[in-house]
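Q: What structure does this chain adopt?
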Amino acid sequence: MATSKSPKAILFDIGGVCVLSPLEAIATYENKNSVPSDWVNYAISRSAPDGFWQRLERGEIKMDEEFFRGFNADLRNEKLWKEFHGSFRNSKKKLKDVANPTQLGDHVSLKAEAADSKPTDQDRGAQQLPKPQDESPARPSLSKLAKDTTIGDPVSFESEDVAQSSPNGSASTTKQSKSSSSPSPPDATSTLISLPPLPDIDGEALFWSMMAHSRSPDPYVFPALMQLRKLPTKERPILAALSNTVIFPSGHPYNRLNNPPESDPRGQFDVFVASAEVGLRKPDPEIYKLAVEKLDKLDKEKGGSGLKAEDCVFLDDIGENLKTAQGLGMKTIKVVLGKTWRAVKELEQATGLSLMDERTRRSKL
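A:
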């Protein structure tokens, strides 16, 4: 049974939380096609707020030839390519937390987490869930991706101070004096000369590989959601989804209207807020407020006293999305790529409910 301090509602992101993250598909594509690591995420995130990815997630454009032409153009933006090789790579600034889109009938947003957090063999086999389709047998390491941002939103960077030893053995920063003995920084001409050509990315193939990868349920969070669904309505919080999504074309196999109701992810939630349907996307505070309004209305319809943001727990794998939720008063749980079982343990603590089967619990405790 839930404790008196348990949340009245739990909000789940979809991609990277309830289902696998398309970030792995991006990393695989970059590795196979000799695309510099992090370029795809950089190009998409820095195209915000009006890149074709962001517009698709807000439902402003259709998923058609025009979208894929625009998406390809965003991935071949020469200005961003120069920035990527200049301020991003040469300064050794690290891309922190990135997201992208895809998933279950309606597209979602992706993301990444801490260094070397690739799922273990044990994680992949947990609770005997099916393996994702078209998965490469040797996934590349997900280099150090972490912190606060989403694809389609400005990325966060963290500068690294590079220290060097001074003659007396003490450390000093790499700021150099203007003396004649100090090497001059490369000028714009030398940067342009050394700039490699833009990678030839097939945006449509990349997009569909991400969508396909995130069709598989997460081996820990999804079973926890199913465990919550089994409980009598009065003994569990309201279950909601708050996700950046896309709308697949009519007739496409991923379009939820072409699938049986039991395969529709919406059937697992009491409330489902999809960015492409409401014209808002995370981390815009307005989409969170809309979700709370729907939850408050449902709680009152069920005879409750209503609820506020403070009564909600929100699970997401993007730091920027969690920051907005925290700012509105929600309790938050960060879902770490490859370590999603930790989020389930936190959710158990927040609700006072048992959400792992014994086999999984023994393997993780």
